[in-house]
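Researcher: Quick one. three chains, 449 residues in total.
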Amino acid sequence: MRESRIWSLHLSCAVVLLILLGLHLVIMHLDGTLALIDPAWGKPLAWNSVLARARSSFFTATYVLMLAAALFHGFYGLRTMITELTDNPFLRRATSISVWTAGVALFGLGAYAIVVMHLRAGA
Amino acid sequence: MKPERDATNVRFAIRRYDPERDERPYWQEFPVRVHPGMTVLEGLHQIREERDAALVWRSSCRMGVCGSCGMVVNGMPRLACSTQVLEISRHRLRLEPLWNFDIVKDLVADQGPMFAAHAEVQPYLVRAEESASGADQSELAQNPEQLIDYLQFSYCVKCGLCMAACPTVATDSGYLGPMPLTAAQRYNADSRDQGAARRRSRVEQTGGAFHCHYAGECSRVCPKGVDPARAIQLLKRNLVFPK
Amino acid sequence: MALTHHPVFQAVEFLIFAAFAFHALNGVRLLLVELGVAVGPPEEPVYPYKSSLNKQRPLMIAMMVLAGLFIVLAGFDFFLPGH
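Model:
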């Protein structure tokens, strides 16, 4: 793939993460602040909340999207750092292959977990 | 000549290296009589005339045009001819050859790799349709708005200060560097040029424009106001959204 | 889930949030800069030179102030008793 395509994808993933990871962090970690706005806001780690998210098709789809974006964005960044620190063509090639392999494997594992959780939650 | 009573004594600490004699570079200090307005380059000439005839550096025009006398002055890449000693220090100057290059001797850096990278981006007007005789006889008109698109980047004198300041050049020897990438944008942005597609293969691959992370040091040290950091970001935009 | 209420766990969670806020807002700046939006158009250089660094500085300051605000806000949420 052309480097400018990969880089554009890297930036697109950044925008996706800005929204999805931002939402994730606010929902999961700023629950105290959200409760100030809406007193009925529940505990995100309570069993019923976790179950409700697992049942929701919206959350399941965004989990998969966020996982893909985070893995691509993170591993591309890691690959850039390593490529810039070594001139060795073998190490550079090995880095590219390793990050692609690790990224695809972790995506498979994560996507499997998300889908199984969605199905078992009784959607 | 300025009267001697105006002179300030400034010590010039110079990074010396002779590849035939020395295992590694070392520092050597020389006292220099500095009068107001005197440049680092004039100080070097004084040392060569009075202290050490073997001291080596590159310089030519002594007016900031030829781009030969780039060196690191007190931790910042500068042109020796357009840097006044007393503006930097009244006590001690530390002169080193440009960073990120091999040393030829003393203050002379080997800029060969930079010029090789420069050649790789085809830094000249490329025309798509060449007439059968090889000579394009038509006039290529350009209006002032089209001129301003590349004029800033055409002021580059290839002194290499940006290359010495760039942290990515420091870690990645495969990186083209700010000077060649700016040259690529200078021609890509020229309305007479049609070579952007030919330059693309080199400037977008590993070691190309996307290895610039906008540290901005190149634009800080550029003695001509060329702003290589701006050129490279515009280059990236045109790679992602071709015109 | 006793583990998630351990002070060390919460402190590390806060660091992750702070890292995200900084990285995300700096990333917004870099997105605008590296796509050539926030660096300004080419201009005739007139001494003393102003570069694209000056052009993007207000954006950088705004983003860092925003990041600081988010981090302080999150600090209250993470460490005030009752959360």
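Chain C touches chain B through 20 residues (CB under 8 Å).
Researcher: Thanks, that's what I needed.
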